[in-house]
Amino acid sequence: QVQLVESGGGLVQPGGSLRLSCAASGIIFSINDMGWYRQALGQQRELVAEITNGDSTNYADSVKGRFTISRDNAKNTMYLQMNSLKPEDTAVYSCNMRVVTGWPKVLSDYWGQGTQVSVSS
Fold first, then answer.
1. How far apart are CA 35 and CA 51, in angstroms?
2. Strand runs (DSSP E) across the chain, as ranges?
3. Which of 10, 20, 28, 103 lies most in the core, judged by the most C-beta atoms within 10 Å?
């Protein structure tokens, strides 16, 4: 079994910055694609940013130029650097990883519990 744990959320003022981390633990053979999602109150969950195992990235239009996704494969960790935060960025941010594990190998999606990001003055 694989566990994902997010950290780095909190309360910041508009224009501030936060760096989210997502660390995977367990018996992991490899991790393919990774992504950050968020869900605001009364809204559906949406993709914020994703990164492939080849380091290709995609971002939601609402965060382009402000957020940066990255990964450290040696640490099985993914990051989301969030700059110029806006009140509309307030949401629970969850990480997702596509992980190869087990024997024979199985490719499965795993989700973290989420971390709250609140942007308010």
1. 6
2. 3-7, 10-12, 18-25, 30-39, 46-51, 57-59, 67-72, 77-82, 91-101, 106-111, 115-119
3. 20
